[in-house]
Each structure stands twice: as C-alpha cells, then as structure tokens.
Amino acid sequence: MALDIIGAGLGRTGTDSMREALTVLGFGPCHHMHEIRDNPEKAKPWHEHLCGGAKLDLDLLFDGYRSQVDWPGAHFWRESAERYPDAKVILSMRDPGDWYESYSKTIKVFRETEMPPDAPHMRQIQEFITVFLGDRFDTKERAMAEFEAHAAEVKSAIPADRLLVHELGSGWVPLCAFLGVPVPDQPYPHTNATTAFQERNIELRK
C-alpha cells in the first residue's frame, strides 16, 4: 500500500488531531508516533535504520498505512515525497513560539525521562528521536529558527498544487478542499493536548 498523504509537519503541530481527521475522511490507517508507542514491534525497524545503519525502507516502515503524520515519518518527508510521487503533502503548522512551548513540555521531557526496564521499545524510541533531532531544539531561539527553516524547506521543495500548509485551528474546510472530499458533519478533532501527553508520560514511568 503506497502512501496517499505525507505529513511533513513536526511533532506538536496538531499532528494527532490531523491523524484522527485523516482517518475520519477515509485516509486511514494513519501512521503516527503513537503507532510505534502502542505497538512495540513497530519500533524495531525505525531503530535499526536510525541507530543501526539499516537501509531506509519506506515501504516496510509504512506497510499497511494510507497516510503518515508526525515524527519519525515527518523526518523523511523528502524521501517519502520522492518514493510516493502521487501522494499529497500536508505541512501542519503553528506559531513557532507556541510550538516551542508545547515541545518543551512534552517531547523534550520525554527524551529526558528514564523508562522502566519492562519498556525497552520506549528506550528505542528515545534513542532514535535523539538521533534525528540531535541538538537542533536545545535552546528556544535555535528551536524556533529550525522550525521556521523546516517549513521554508518544505514549501520550497514541494509544488504548491501538491502541498497544503495547514495552520493549527484551521479545521476541516482547507483540508477537505485540498483532498477533494466533503466536510464531515462533526467537529474537527482535538487530541493529544499538552496535558494529555504529560499524563501519558507519567504512566509510562510507572
């Protein structure tokens, strides 16, 4: 199954809400970091590539999925756009300062959390997140600059008719117009808020 939708937006830009929205619109299953978190066996191939030097195999990593959002998939937006030339690309965005505040309270904390011995796949996730993030987001100033540079790179590389820049809070209308599907008769999803992420992080340490 080739990807129909490639998510190029960084984590904490409404990616889990986008995952749910794409599922509602019929573009599921949608790959998201939660898929790896909740299915330990899915962490291994990502870890083997990012930390072990295995060849990048997008067909393996996204096997069974119609769409992809969030890290680690978003790290390979360029490779995915080349591999799946008919797929549309969605760049989820939000204010850089607001993004950093969310990132610093969630993913940054997760990277520094000591995982229990019975959750080795969570340590694998921490390891490969560290590999592809490196030190780019270690300070607020650098993180915001990297965030904006990433957006500029995606906009420059992907043709306008293939790309949707979806600002947080934009809801159904631009997304449905881009995908050519009707607007659902239900509110746009709002999932994985900062507090929900933090609560999940606490659970993982128990």
UniProtKB/TrEMBL annotation:
This is Sulfotransferase family protein. It comes from Rhodovulum iodosum.
